[in-house]
Amino acid sequence: MPSGPVYLPIFPLPDLTFFPHTVLPLHIFEARYRAMITDCLGRDRRLAVVALEPGYESGYAGKPPVKQIAGAGSIVRCQRLATGRFNIVLRGDTRIRIEREVPTDTLYRIAVATPLTEVGADRAAVPGLAAGIRRRCLQIFDALSRPTEGMRESLEAVRSPAELADQVASAMLPDAKVRQTLLEELDVERRLEGLTAALDDLLSRLSGGRG
Length: 211
Description:
- By secondary structure, the protein is α+β, with helices and mostly antiparallel strands.
- The protein has helices at about 30-40, 125-145, 150-155, 160-170, 175-185, 190-210, and strands spanning about 5-15, 25-30, 45-50, 70-80, 85-100, 110-115.
- The chain has two domains: about 5-115, Roll (Archaeosine Trna-guanine Transglycosylase, Chain: A, domain 4), CATH 2.30.130; about 125-210, no CATH class.
- The chain has six helices and six strands; from the N terminus they run ββαββββααααα.
- Strands 1-3-4-5-6 form a five-stranded mixed barrel.
- The radius of gyration is 18 Å and the shape is globular.
- The mean pLDDT is about 95.
């Protein structure tokens, strides 16, 4: 994705966080978003998935406020159904900051966005934090009585700590506010620290539920 400002269709969704380094399957059924996917497929296949601000319910059919930081990616798989709906898979490419929305005659919303750059991935503490996150994930699977061997291999296969943080946060954290906070954190070391704290909290609650 270009480093400068880009124009992107935005897909606002409640309680959903779209991280880079992840894939997101979606079923598209609303008319405005079917039109968005059709247009995306005819262009560069890129769009942003944006979380809605609290209190969106009354204005969902219009243009409710959205979070400024979002995930942007590309449609990598698409199935158009006989009903006109779509099943798509998005691949997360980058974090973006929405600068402003632009007037449009489309049913969906379009924004000017700036791709964001991560920092801090090469600090000395990062590998140890990543190892601790892998360990906590295995402990969570054990607490849930799920097999850990396949999980261990999957975790070890992700060599980049930044990718690991995004994939684990997307897959394992139930709290949308925590996920959004981690999406907004551009400092990789601080993101790993925040994810560690969130996993510790999840482990604590799972351990409490056992007793």
